């Protein structure tokens, strides 16, 4: 990024480059205008705030978003999600501009796997192949044989012969769930998502006692004591599809609460209750603070000034592309 871009980015983050005051702006109108003018596509994850999901061209889980990024013909990809998602989109589209409304939108799970430590772990197990969850940095992807998401992890793992020793990183909860599902004994990296780790089993069981007619459905990033209570375990897209097809009319949903927005749209007749988090006495839901860093105002300014843009070193991107492409071809 050149110095002019850096200066602009600083000014945007301080709010100095707003031509109109926030009150004067209709963000929805302005964003729609910018989308057309710049031939930009907005890809949003289900955990984004409601207004962002509503204005996006495509809303999906991590796999669907990567697939959409791989095939878009837009000139600019605006990624309303977190850094590893936008970085994956950039690796898939090195020539396109990929924007992330707030560069600080990281991920506790990706952060739990520092590349130098993971490289040493991998080197200590040279007979193992490496499967990594997409929630990791480009550096970790370069150390991987194949990437997966919670939608396709079982399929990806089963693409290896049974006797092949595997490392799974960075999510220990997803890894433990996958070991049980596939009968493997993958070595697990000790990482976790702070949102899914925060669900309280006591409060969840109390809530289920209050609503015995509800089914608990959970994302596999949740710890095993939460997953044991669930009638269905799946990715965000899987949870949506299950709520739609199940004959039950009430669900307690153990994943980030942003998913409820699309669920309510798809099954308005059903009752959806967010699973309770530990030490959460004000609200009954769990929110990802990183995902919620993106706002309509930041989405607008990032599209207006085409900043902040994701930058990935060319050599790093080339290496990280291989395990992502392997995943896409296996999905
Ligand atoms: P999926 O979108 O693959 O369900 O993953 C959830 C998540 O935690 C994304 O950060
Ligand atoms: Fe990362 Fe968890 Fe937030 Fe997803 S919900 S972005 S895994 S911290």
List the helices and strands and how they pair.
Elements: H1 3-13, H2 27-38, E1 40-45, H3 50-55, E2 58-60, H4 62-71, E3 76-80, H5 83-92, E4 97-99, H6 108-111, H7 115-123, E5 129-133, H8 138-142, E6 146-148, H9 153-158, E7 166-169, H10 172-182, E8 187-188, H11 194-197, H12 201-210, E9 215-218, H13 224-227, E10 232-233, H14 236-245, E11 250-254, H15 259-266, E12 271-274, H16 296-305, H17 314-330
Parallel strand pairs: 1-2, 1-3, 3-4, 5-6, 5-7, 7-8, 9-10, 9-11, 11-12
The protein binds 1,3-dihydroxyacetonephosphate and iron/sulfur cluster.
- Helix content range: 40-55%
In round numbers, the mean pLDDT is 93
Q: What Rg is obtained from the alpha carbons, in whole angstroms?
A: 20 Å
- Strand fraction equals 5-15%
E-strand count: 12
Summarize the structure.
The protein is of the alpha/beta class and 331 residues long. 44% of the residues lie in helices and 14% in strands.
